[in-house]
């Protein structure tokens, strides 16, 4: 974590991906992120993948560098502690991040009554508060019908939870913009983001809505082709696969040069009376272009293809399984300054990413492991709320707070 | 656009998705975003989808609400104008956003020499400056091998350019954090983001790396199932499809209740000696659960399924094509305050999204259409740089600036 947001504290009440991912991003830029969980863990505490011993690799990965407090908010005193953490005075305090329903102990008005300039970011499923998750939102957004093999007639779900991550990134923006505004005006605010809106806004921003409304139709399923330009996957002689694209004239020329297909491509241009320097023509002739290129890829192992395409400056990349990416790709290793091998208590060593952004004005710092559930219960109660050891002990005895839990 | 970032100016030098998307997000929160393009348009100016008249719906959708200046930066004077825009004095100025190579007119050190506290965000393909696009990054990240039909043996590309959007959202964070830091310390900085790092960091944050390194294996392709819990798509009696999930015990009970399968599910529990209240057991028994549920979905039209699942509070959603989402879903309509129908000059009317975030302390304002290329050339030269009409006329005559271009 770098220290750019040092002095800012975010109290996170969350589950699953969107809010935890946002808290992770804030923490990796220096904010003190305190995650509140129920004693014994919340809905996502044992989410797969898990180790043989049942420890969640998902939870550990999403909560790197946070402080964890375990708290029973069904108890009145537990709720008071949670609200006191969220509404502490001080410039850096008073920032709440949640994807749980904003009611009960997370009711904005109740919190605002305790700190008028509170900033609260709430991620919901739908705008009306009804439930929606990444998988149901993606189904509604249209992508499953244009993803997958060209003649397949069923929807294809994504595996990467895109909308959760976009909502998370948006939530971070919401915190930063609101905190900037609060410093300028003294006013806090309640910021809402619906997961479904992140998908539907993206449909607008990338032109999918205009395409239907203006052109009266939408693109068909095009397999691994890239719509409107040239992009295609190929199998290599050693049974690997590569993705090759040529969005620009320069990338197209590099591809033609590396594969020695200049004369063949002139014949394709003549055959269809098309100038292949234009990307829309490469899309129109994509099947033929692919047929011309395929033998070159099929006749060479990945290593030779890599050398030739890199030498010409083509825009391509190998397909990799998760395991291949980790085993073979230096970008996914400690050679990349973004990564560091961490020791995660109860789990072991693995490679973990810090902040995606490199700031010239801030050192990267180290990547911190996730807490054990409730690891910082006592520390947070003492440091942030000033509770005495005796009081903290009594809260433990009453089951109002918990942890650390192995 | 709301006005939370009013007074902040971002000069964008960009093409394709990541930087334009970031500029769009900044503009929709009130920043004055000035996009610089070559006279006649850049690499992405005619990117598909296009209208019958060849106007890019993609370009129009990604540049909503920006100001456009057309400038020949291969000319020395053109380059000076670009750099003057980027390094203007004033608190809100001196912020550059680009996904073009940071050299020549976009060299950070050269710009910093003109304004020492410059903030420059540069999005690259790979960290070492080599080329990578969303499609080649996604191939390398592992997702294509776990996406798609369960027994399909080839990679399945995503259609939604996830990493471009994540990099865009990260770039916005980079601007906001750097500007906060500059106001505190007076120091600017150069912020770099590699598209490939956004993917590999996400592999870490979502537990995919730990899964391989700690457990020694990775999840298999699981079709439209959701890994580690229950999620499945079903066909309806009217040939629609729905996605149904049950991550939590509550969602599972709602699904069982709506479908009237409580007794059958007890038989499944007995058959496999599993407690289906636990999500990992629902994943283990997913094929059988699906077989039990399928007749209920196959026997009802979507409308009846919708009513029953909503009544019980199940977590589900219909699959929709892009066209169906726009035609049928009130979330993708002007009934959603995020959306507004706009008139885009040269293109026509379509539904466009504003900011995904709802701030209680700021009015949403209206959604602005994209500029025509070079629409604001004269306005920006006069207002920001204080050039005279005569000077601006001479720049047009010399072909150093251009626009507006229909």
Protein described:
2 copies of one chain form a homodimer. Chain A is of the alpha/beta class and 406 residues long. Chain A has 16 helices and 13 strands. In chain A, the strands form 3 sheets. Chain A has a 7-stranded mixed β-sheet with strand order 6-5-4-1-2-3-13, with helices on both faces. In chain A, β7 and β8 (241-246) form a beta hairpin. Chain A starts with 8 loop residues before the first strand and ends with a strand. The model of chain A has no long low-confidence stretch (mean pLDDT 97). The interface between A and B is large, with 152 and 151 residues. β6 (189-194) of chain A pairs antiparallel with β12 of chain B.
C-alpha-based Rg of chain A, rounded:
26 Å
Tell me what portion of residues of chain A adopts beta-strand conformation.
15-25%
Oligomer: homodimer
Low-pLDDT residue spans of chain A? none
Largest interface, and how many residues on either side? A-B, 152 and 151 residues
Largest sheet, strands/sense/barrel of chain A:
7 strands, mixed
Written as H for each helix and E for each strand, in order along the chain, the element string of chain A is EHEHEHEHEHHEHHEEHHHHHEHEEEHHE
- Tally of contiguous helical segments of chain A: 16
**Portion of residues in helices of chain A?**
25-40%
Extended strand count of chain A: 13
- Mean residue pLDDT of chain A: 97
Distance separating the two termini of chain A: 25 Å
Query: What is the 3D form of chain A?
Result: elongated
* Spatial strand arrangement across the major sheet of chain A: 6-5-4-1-2-3-13
Structural class of chain A: alpha/beta
